[in-house]
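Reproducibility note. Readers wishing to regenerate the assembly model reported in the main text can use the exact inputs given here. Chain order matters: entities are listed in the order in which they were concatenated for prediction.
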Amino acid sequence: MDEFSIFLQIIFWGLYAGCIYILLATGLNLIFGVMKVVNFAHGEFLMIGAYITATVFFLTGFNPFVILLLSMVVLVGIGAVVERLCFRPILGTGKLNEIFLSIGLIYIFQNGAAMIWGDAWQSVKSPYESMTVPIGPLSVPLDYIIIMVVTAAILCGLFLFLKKTTIGMQMRATSQNRKGAMLVGIDVERIDVISFGLGCALAAAAGTLWVVSGQVFNPYMGSIPAVKAFAIIILGGLGSIPGAIIGGLLMGLAENGAAFLLGGIWKDAVSFIILIVVLIIRPTGLFGGKEG
Amino acid sequence: MKYSVLVIVVLLIAAAFIAGCSQPASTQQTPAASQDVVRVGVIASLTGPASNVGTNMWQSAQVAAEKINAEGGVTLQDGKKAQITLIVGDDESTQAGGQKAATKLITDDKVDILVGGYSSAVTSAYEQTIAEYKVPYIVTGASSPIITHRTDIDTSYIFHHCPTTDTYGQYTTQFIDQVVRPAVNQKAGASSDRPFRLALLYQDTAFGKGIQTAVNDTITKNKLNIVLVSQQSFRMGESDFRTQLTAIKAEKPDALYLGAFPNEGAPAITQARRDIGLNTIFLSAENNDNAQFYKDVGQYGEGAIIESRFSPYTAPAGAVAADQDVFKQAYFARFGTYPDMMGASTYDGVFIAVKAIGNAGTTDKAAVRQALVDLKMPQVIEAMKDGTISFSSDYRESGFDLWMEQLSPDAQSGETRPAIVWPDNLKTTGFVLPSWYVAGSSS
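Running the prediction on these inputs yields the following structure tokens for the assembly.
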């Protein structure tokens, strides 16, 4: 394995990790952009998405990449319920309420998942795990190519939804100016529910791709990805979808580059070092507006 | 708005309830109609990331207690028989939880002796409490030598019945030198003095660093012909090792030693074989020898080596095989799964506690401590040095006979299953290099 191949390999693993981060952070940013709520329990939606995919896979043996759609649909429903029952009543009552509410939700979801599925680490075997694809000097497993294609497809779908559909335009309008949106007759509460559901569905997609890529999961898996997702949306700019995508990719590449060059213990730290540097130079993040 | 606030309150109460359901701070297992009881506290991780192992430890303790009580319990002074009562404290896989569990067991439940403790970081966090109240504690899960070697507190009431990371590293490195190195040189067609290229991938904790230190020390002290070509670390709980494995592969190792927990070791091997194409021998520490690891690693485990002292799927040639089987069957009959090695040492630990109390003839803690210091009892279900359980005079550590297992495909389960390949007095088969194995190279 020559140095160029190793470099390409590290870039490839960075892109793969970036896909998971992009989906998680985009969902979080979608919610924040529209509702301006801080939801620390977002990683738990990734965890539930992972468990739904795994459970359906274990029960039916269906292709987990197909189950991804089911997992996303279920999480839209769960997200809508959580928004309606938990976040809507406290909307506008202060960030402290949002923080404590989301911490409470973390415990509910983690312990609920532990009761339903148990505490043990689990894993799923992809139907394509033995297939590889030659890319230049590399031979990479087919699963990772599918993961990148699925991520790109979801982002394209989201882009078209936000640009071309009435609800998408209403979401953008609510995100830009909530009061203005209300004045022109947009039902912002309905938009909140849809945004929250969509954000959770993206987290479910991230969870499914996590599972399919051979990483283990348990009820407590969501905490660290959620923290990183927050770092990504701050890095990219709060409320900015392109910011979440670029931030996610940067995070994935930086983590893997640091793990290779400096050692695995720097993997998590380097993302936050970049975050601090970017915030010093540009406090609103890479793609953030003047108010962030 | 009032309705919504009510819903939130109900949800928060539900959260507390659910948390309470899955986090029993203290649960008792009381023998029926007993008047004289010996109270044995079991500290285990029933919730949190280590709950899989912790539950196994607690359930194994219950199997031991049931066997002891069924055989009449413990004999105290004047021949009086007492049944044992187990009381579990959940350390929640955290240092704060461990502190809480130990304090409650000692001050509220007033246990006579303690058994258990998993994760060196968690266990060491509440050793101060043990020292303060002077309660005999048989640690059966934490593997760092610091448990009894530390000098900042009084550890004289703490006894370590679990091999330490020092021992893991020594045994595994000696096995590499004596068995793997000659086999690799033969396969590579190299001279017998070709240095063996070993890589390390270890958890960045006392556990992982302990293994790293032990491997380095063993190579240096014994002047072994082994060169460490790569030493990579990772954060505890990591599940993506691809980049570190890419770096390791670039160094062309002959074998990779993983200082990892099962939830890290299984994906690391899978990713190495599947994603990186690192077709080498993977060596793991004993805590990976559990049913979940075999399930997670699947066929990718073929050829891998696990240093062990108790396995769900094999037993050494010799005396303990039958006793291990009785324990496994009793456990399976009760819980529908098989125990792991932390469960086995906790099972041993309850027997050791009862034997010490029996020898002391009392539950007086100083007397029980002295009985543990003087203890010499036959091995229970784990193979011990000279077949005897006793604690060393310096650090109060018991001496285990460890072995190395090699995994091979099992058509029936679709997974792999272990067979003991070293040392000679315990092995049931010989070590082989898999057909797909690729020896490392310095070129």
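We highlight two features of this model. Chain B has 14 helices and 16 strands. Chain B touches chain A through 51 residues (CB under 8 Å).
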